[in-house]
Amino acid sequence: MPRAVRNAASWRFALVAAVALGTLLPFLDKPLHIDDPVYVRVAQHIRTAPADFYGFEMNWHGRLEPVADFNKNPPGVSYYLAAASLVTGWSERGLHAAMLVAVLAALAATAALARELEIDAFASTLVLFSMPGFLVAATTLMADPLLVAFWCASLAAWVAGLRRSSPPLLLAGAVLAGLAAVTKYVGIALIPLLAACTLLLAPRKGRSLAFLLVSLAMVAAFDLYARRLYGHSPLLDVGGYALEYRPQGYAPLDKVIVGLSFLGGSLLSGLFFAPLLWSRDVLLVLVTAGAAVLAGLIVRGDVGAFPLWDDGVRWGVVSQLALFVLAGLHWLALGIAEMWRRRDGVSVLLVLWLFGIVVFAAVLNWSTNARALVLAAPAAALLVAGRLDGVGVGSPVRRFWPVALAPGLAVAVAVAWGDARLAATSRKAAVELTARHSPAEGTLWFRGAWGFHHYAKRQGARKIDEASTQLAPGDIVLVPLNNSGAGPLLPQAVRLLEDVELPVSGRIATMSAPRGAGFYSDIWGPLPYALGAVPPEVYQVLELTRPLRIGSPPS
């Protein structure tokens, strides 16, 4: 690459990095949220026993159990957090600062892959960053940013290795694919994608596939090591869990609607590019399709157990659901159209990548959620950038496409702030309620998981063990109603001291069953997020009036 081109690419990525840092730095104090506490607790254990990553017990799902039995994620990101903590410590700011590095690495890897595929790297990375699913994931301590970094870097190294006939680059791609798999198990899907990449881009270099044995060996070695430590295969466990645990009860058509809704909402920024990507006739077809989806939802009346009618049509929910489904259909149409237009290996590769992750998230995974679709975001961004590259040089689209970026980024930032405000209620509730209700005699207990679990324990409260806890008169129990595993206690054994309502400021809900928003799980509803008034978070404070033995886990 000529020096002038390299310098231009460096300056452009510096601008992308500046946008990312400017957007994400205000989130450094975001409290631990959803599954963040598990990743952090595993990282803390790794600091003391690095060779035995899950060698401890934790009460996360309502009873004390080995972490290896309930944790369905590999330890890759926890090793990263453990190493980072040597510099940053364990504060929220320090850990989020460490995750910023992973986010920048994901953007840099996407830019490198775009250059190898001869797609505009500047547009690709900015479109990726403007997607709500990616931006919210960038404000968590979970595996997704690091997974995207390994995934895209692996593909970039592999494509470069094929085109330069470079064994070191092919080896690097294979090793990075192995690291992706031990960061999140869906990373294993990268191995067949690399094989497809070889067949599509360099079919005469089939011997390059032998390097994938390195990736397979890394996955197999991890699985065998975990079996030796914990007596069972994590790969078989997570596969069985994803296929067997289906609490939502969605019918097949419901799953299609929810899958398209989460795809469209998580990658919403692509819809704002539609006027630049399609002819007027195609845009008319899209508008007609959106109207048809809206009408169909009204006639259907519900999605699973979530009602779309309540003394009339719930227009706010139905209109957002129709918009997200339309946005999801737009991504599928764009992938097919680009494959038809270009008719080359690159477009087929991107469609296989995008469609494969969509099938995983909507069909194979235990729950459709925005996190499962983050891995589709780079492929979608590359499709948009590739489509823009195909526009004529004199077209205003080539100059004004950043205008279409602004509304998508604005929505993504708003969703991220909505999620951060929800996380803040857990920390606020744990600090205030433990201070206000610590009993003079007796024990302060709590139910629930997620961020509330982390902060309530940090304040000295004890979590109820559903298999063994004996509650005594005078004990206090804190119960977050919008949480996992936080069912009620026997009404005859408690009295309600107070219902505490903490407002979630802002106008976007990410986890609210009344609004149908379930960013982290469609159990909460068919939308990844919902625009409108956000219901307050409710916490019950209960006092035991008679002895009570807890004998069964909450639903």
Spell out the key features of this protein.
single chain; 555 residues; alpha+beta; 3 domains; two-stranded antiparallel ribbon
Question: Can I get a quick summary?
Answer:
The chain has 555 residues and is of the alpha+beta class. The protein is built from 21 helices and 15 strands. The chain has a five-stranded mixed beta sheet with strand order 6-5-8-14-9, with helices on one face. A two-stranded antiparallel sheet has the order 1-2. It has a two-stranded antiparallel ribbon with strand order 3-4.
Helix content: 55-70%
The total of helices stands at 21
Count of distinct strands: 15
Mean pLDDT: 89
Estimated radius of gyration: 24 Å
What fraction of the residues are assigned to beta strands by DSSP? Answer: 5-15%
The backbone outline, from C-alpha atoms, is globular
Largest sheet: 5 strands, mixed
When the domains are counted, the total is 3
Structural class: alpha+beta
Task: Give me the side-by-side strand order of the main sheet.
Answer: 6-5-8-14-9
What does this structure look like?
The structure is a single chain. The chain has about 550 residues and is α+β, with helices and mostly antiparallel strands. The protein has three domains: about 15-245, no CATH class; about 245-390, no CATH class; about 425-550, no CATH class. The chain has 21 helices and 15 strands. Strands 6-5-8-14-9 form a five-stranded mixed sheet, with helices on one face. Strand 1 (about 55-60) and strand 2 (about 65) form a beta hairpin. Helix 4 crosses helix 5, helix 5 packs parallel to helix 8 (about 145-165) and helix 8 packs antiparallel against helix 9. The longest helix is centred in the last third of the chain and has 41 residues, at about 395-435. The chain is globular, with a radius of gyration of 24 Å. The N and C termini lie far apart (about 60 Å). About 50% of the residues are buried. The model has no long low-confidence stretch (mean pLDDT about 90).
